[in-house]
Amino acid sequence: xxxxxxxxxxxxxxxxxxxxxxxxxxxxxxxxxxxxxxxxxxxxxxxxxxxxxxxxxxxxxxxxxxxxxxxxxxxxxxxxxxxxxxxxxxxxxxxxxxxxxxxx
Length: 104
Known about the structure:
This protein has strands at 5-8, 14-17, 28-36, 47-52, 58-63, 69-75, 78-85, 92-93, 97-99. Strands 4, 5, 7, 8 and 9 form a five-stranded antiparallel β-sheet that branches. Strands 1, 2, 3 and 6 form a four-stranded antiparallel β-sheet that branches. With 104 residues, the chain is an all-beta fold.
């Protein structure tokens, strides 16, 4: 039986916009953890890929560390989703989300 994984992306997906003004152009950050659903233990070496929501183009990616954690920095404003893959596991994706500058 294949073990399914699911993603706890820093409390179900933490997307931080680091800019206080839309004209600043400061990038955002996506971070989180990948946890094995059955064992509740972190999963290391998971491929984490940030993709544009409109055409699935790869923007950036990384691999989880030994604690299952990942961080994607310098993410421009836009709509994205994240895919998680590892040999032997079913690929998972988040729903799309928006990274935007904060308005005050």
